[in-house]
Amino acid sequence: MPWPVLVFDIESIPDVAGLRAVRNAAADATDAEVYAQWVQERKDNGQSDFMPHYLQRVLVISCVFRNAEGLRVHSFVDRDNASEGKVIQNFFSAVDKHVPQLVSWNGGGFDLPVLNYRGLRHGVNADRYWCMGEGGGPDDREFKWNNYIGRYHMRHLDLMDLMAMYQPRANAPLDALAKLCGFPGKLGMDGSQVYPAFLDGKLEDIRRYCETDVLNTYLLYCRFQKMRCGFTEAEYAQEIEFVKHTLGELSSAEPHWKEYLDAWK
Prior knowledge:
Nucleotidyltransferase, domain 5; alpha/beta; single chain; 12 helices
């Protein structure tokens, strides 16, 4: 199995300030009014009220980082409602530092396009991430044939996209696949509840939800490695037990991991 591996997932909310700027909204209109008017216009036109990628403000990026030294769960969080650029920069700096295999569930369809647009918005630097072998140096050559940007490359593995054979009509939800494989799936929240939870000040609940989602993705990645014989049966079982042991150590400080383990039959 290739290490290091960095599995990631983001949680985002509508960028109402950006929406105001794009729409030249009246200065005396409240954020709630600007957003509600946009939603109503979309509904009136029979369109989805899901914000486009470039107006998704990144709130949390949760990661499972696995290398030869162990497994870590870590989240980059915009805690002061003004650090989106720093959150995104920290994520891409980790990619630059470790040059891991990135793993996601629908990361090519949602998470990375959001990070791309919002990183552009904030002037983020992401040298390794954008490398496609055009530099010609010895460190760049391998990126010509296997980079983070190519849909059919493995340096970023969008596990959902691959499982669906790159056919959108065959896409499957993370929660369903996790449960089908015997993992807990989503606990306590889903994506539609993130913005209301943010408005209620429940940032830590959102962070915990994102972390359980990214762990589900890592477990499905392990299952995929067993399927493609990257893991033997014994190695897969050992890795699953290692994950459970790691979560057990984390559960005293982070109660959502105890809940996750209790749900893992």
